[in-house]
Amino acid sequence: MKAPPFDYHRATGVADAVEALRAADGEGKVLAGGQSLVPLLALRLARPAVLVDINRVPDLDRLELRDGVLHAGALVRHLGLAAQDRHPLAAEAARWVGHTAIRSRGTLAGSLAHADPSAELPAVLRACDGAVHVAGPGGRRRLGADALFVGALQSDLADDEVITEVELPVPDAWGFAEFARRHGDFAVVAVVAARFGERLRLVVGGVGAVPHLVDVGDLTTVDGELSQDRVAILAAAAADDVDPPTDLHGSAGHRRALTEQMALRALAQLAGHRTPEVV
Amino acid sequence: MTTSTNAPHTPHTPASGAPVRRKEDARLLTGRGRYVSDLVLPRMRHVAFVRSPLAHARITGVDVGEALATEGVHAVFTGEHPRIAPVALRARSALPGYVETDQPPLARGKVRFAGEAVAAVVADDRYLAEDGAEGVLVDYEPLAPTVCAWEEPTDPVHEEAPDNLLLSRTFRAGDVDAALAGAAVVVDRELTTNRHGGNPIECRAGVARYEAADRRLTFWSGTQVPWIVRTQLAELLDLPEASIRVIVPDVGGGFGVKAVLYPEDVALCLMAMTMPGTPLKWVEDRVEHLLAATHARDHRYVLRAGFAADGELLAVKADVWCNTGAYSVHPWTAGIEPLMAGGLLTGPYKLADYECTVRGVATNTSPSGPYRGVARPSTVFAMEALLDSGARALGMDPIALRRRNLILPADVPYRMPSRLVDDSGAYEACLDKAVETFDLGRWRAEQTRRRREGGWPVGIGVAVYNELTGLGRAASAGPRMAFRTGHDACTVRVQPDGGVTVFSGVTSQGQGLETTMAQVVADALGVAYEAVEVRIGDTDESLWGFGAFSSRQAVIGGGAAHLAGEEVRGKALALAAALTEAPVEELDLRGGQVYMAGQQKPVISLAEVGRVAYLQSDRLPDGVEPGLESTRFYDPIRGAFAAGAQVAALAVDPATGEIHILDWVCVEDAGRIVHPVIVDGQIAGSIAQGIGGAMFEHLVYDDAGNLSTGTLLDYLMPTAAEIPELRIGHVSTPAANPTGVRGVGEGGTLAPNAVVAGAVADALGIEIDDLPVTPSRVWELVHP
């Protein structure tokens, strides 16, 4: 478990990082928090020729709320996200990421770039209909959540692009529920519910190659209070809408059941319903 | 009134029984531990092993050219190297029908499990060694792999065992068929238990250095068994025993997986012998550990039990398959799990009619070996499952049924159907105290309330168990091997300044053996705990010890320490008597001072006695040799059974399969307790490990023999968040050994499989036949 040889470049700015990635000709990787990349290096599953370290790039750790949207720089760590109160959903989800040591280094943008379909923050980005700002040799572009995630551990980012900022719109109401094998594990199934006006976005993690945006037509348009009946109908519809895989930690059937249960919990939280003490 | 803490008339406060500051704390708690992994020697080079990606295949060619051309690589070894090719590890046993097989240090001719070491690369550092390992090109011709021990093999793992059966034995007592025929109810269960790894924080580690001039090999190792390693290495390397020194510094956990001599150990030493003066270091990483360190508990049980109408257990008939993996583990053999399973299956329950056939079956998986609890976490699960089924069939309370059948104090010594002799009898006392602490009535009421008012169903699980500890020569660990592990030695030396140094044969992987030995010697000799220094883990310093396994060291190493301490005390008092012209029978040694009966001031100090013993031979009485030390062996002949009971309440969500542990109580009989915090730490740690095994940890192979759980992302170790607050209680029935202790290293692991499975079954009205009990499995059982 020792990394294969690689060159190391400490980027002095975004343009410098992009240039280093371009020069690496598809063999470069951005090192931010390193919480996914470094284990992959140690297992020799990733073999970049160059690591472009952006940790010393100035101004990438900004975190500010503008016009109902949280703007987080590429170096905002999970701990910072968990500690802020301007986007309570993102704060809650960040608390579910790994353990303190992981959260103190791991970054929001890094998690999005890594695009693990069982990770919490990609599901949050999609539920909030957020976006990432990307810098590349051809200039800058803004990429919406629906376009960012293209497959398991695959994003739309080019090899020489780097995320500079994440936009997370703050929902009017939200709910987050996760089922994991242990405290701090990736989700077996996680459900993120976000409400913007009459529009409800329900995203399920752990059930496919990308965070799954539940598509149940008009059911996700809600006028006024979200009733308990509607919660039950939506949760059942969400379970029908997913096509989960089977793996060591849960069968397809189990994941479908978990989708319904986590949706029930997340939607009840969003709606402010009182839930009975069960444990 | 004033008192002085140094008042000479203060009676000796026993160190045993008190939570004294641990000797190890200054090192281990402040990051100053000295581990093999930290060891740096001049000219040292690093080793990476090339491991087989296939479970079963012939090796048709190995090309090391590219590896040798890699920057920083100095040598590459394969199984065909002339120094390595003639050597094979062969676990020997005189057990009838046992098939002996060879395990090469590096694979030769064929590979038998994914992860088996095929070649080794020596380089300037581990990074370069791994670069070189990628350059070793091995051609394989695949063979059909066997992964499951109870399915027909296609290509046998070893030619010597065409059916893969390495050993089989039937335990028989009474007439089980007649007893079953006369039973009021007969219950059947078919169970499988899951595959575990040891996963100490520090994986395996070794540094080997050979000095050609004096033909001396020094092997720094994280082993639990340094003297066994020395003896086995001497034979395998063809060196005199005295030419091998095994040094075991601080070790980051063992749990049994380091009580094995591994092929990597032998390969490392053989390679070092071909590179005199160049120390070679190998530190196992986590991927290697999961893949190639020993596994355990991949078992199947087909069971039938008969009960009388009043609940008396009349008969148990069992067929057991244990997956022994690709090789018979050295030196314990493939018998380690099956024989323990057959010998201890009936646990703390009285039974006359018993028949149990156990098998050790070779497969193309990592070899199975000793792991905390050896087989008994599985057998306790099996036995308690039978009792739970019996209770349901009889309509009887499951705890009452257990109580009806426990070995009681009046039955002791009790000859178990496997002919092991149980000396405990504290089972009912443990169960009673556990049930009372747990408050069974309250939890039964809560169970009923939830059935009425809703909320996750609650289940109650219970298990009673006997931990076989401190085995002496009559019940020695291991099946008819060439050595008996019943004894350890200890030397207690009073230094010229009165300080006390203990050279003990015990080893410590973090369980505080330096402290325990110091406490025992302080009390036996009559000195302050602080005056005792303990040296362990060096075969050139101490005389002998078999090491850490079978919860043996407090009993056996502690026994030797006590006897040696007592003997030195006798010598010191005799010398003190001669020096003070006092009758020896009126002298007493406490706190490092010699007192005369009836006097408050000491007549001479141990320091003065020590000074005379070494430096002032002119003051020695006639016939007394200089020096002040003693070496004693101790063997308990049989062993000490340690009773325990655990009871827990769990809540289960039928909709998700999620399990919450609400309360967990354990009561054990550790005999006389030497260090209460260490003892509770052992119990808590072993329960945590047991809960890990019951609910999370599972090494999964796919049908091709690939390990699917190759990192800690998929092999789930419990964290502090998964382990509930444990309520630990004690009963104390001192054992018949010098210190009265019973071992506590493993007991906690024995119950959680049974407790978790029993509680979930109780909550949901289902039967749990397969471990681990995961949310997914529970959900599948509720939604068939």
Automatic annotation (TrEMBL), chain A:
Gene3D superfamilies according to UniProt: 3.30.465.10, CO dehydrogenase flavoprotein, C-terminal domain, Uridine Diphospho-n-acetylenolpyruvylglucosamine Reductase, domain 2
| Superkingdom, taxonomy of origin | Bacteria
Which positions, given as ranges, span the membrane?
none
Q: Where is the FAD-binding PCMH-type domain?
A: 1-173
Sorted alphabetically, the keyword list is: FAD, Flavoprotein, Oxidoreductase
InterPro entries cross-referenced by the UniProt entry: CO_DH_flav_C, CO_DH_flav_C_dom_sf, Diverse_Substr_Oxidored, FAD-bd_PCMH, FAD-bd_PCMH-like_sf, FAD-bd_PCMH_sub1, FAD-bd_PCMH_sub2, Mopterin_DH_FAD-bd
Q: Which PROSITE patterns match?
A: FAD_PCMH
SUPFAM superfamilies from the UniProt entry: CO dehydrogenase flavoprotein C-terminal domain-like, FAD-binding/transporter-associated domain-like
Protein name, per record? Xanthine dehydrogenase family protein subunit M
Q: Which organism is it from?
A: Actinomycetospora chlora
From TrEMBL, chain B:
The UniProt record lists the Aldehyde oxidase/xanthine dehydrogenase a/b hammerhead domain at: 30-144
Region (Disordered) residue spans: 1-23
Domain of life, per UniProt, equals Bacteria
Q: What is this protein called?
A: Xanthine dehydrogenase family protein molybdopterin-binding subunit
Residues folding into a coiled coil are none
Q: Does the keyword Transmembrane helix apply?
A: no
Task: Please provide the record's keywords in A-Z order.
Answer: Molybdenum, Oxidoreductase
- Cited Gene3D superfamilies: Aldehyde oxidase/xanthine dehydrogenase, a/b hammerhead (3.90.1170.50), Aldehyde oxidase/xanthine dehydrogenase, molybdopterin binding domain (3.30.365.10)
- Stored SUPFAM superfamilies: CO dehydrogenase molybdoprotein N-domain-like (SSF54665), Molybdenum cofactor-binding domain (SSF56003)
- InterPro entries per the record? Ald_Oxase/Xan_DH_a/b, Ald_Oxase/Xan_DH_a/b_sf, Ald_Oxase/xanthine_DH-like, AldOxase/xan_DH_MoCoBD1, AldOxase/xan_DH_MoCoBD2, AldOxase/xan_DH_Mopterin-bd_sf
* Species annotation: Actinomycetospora chlora
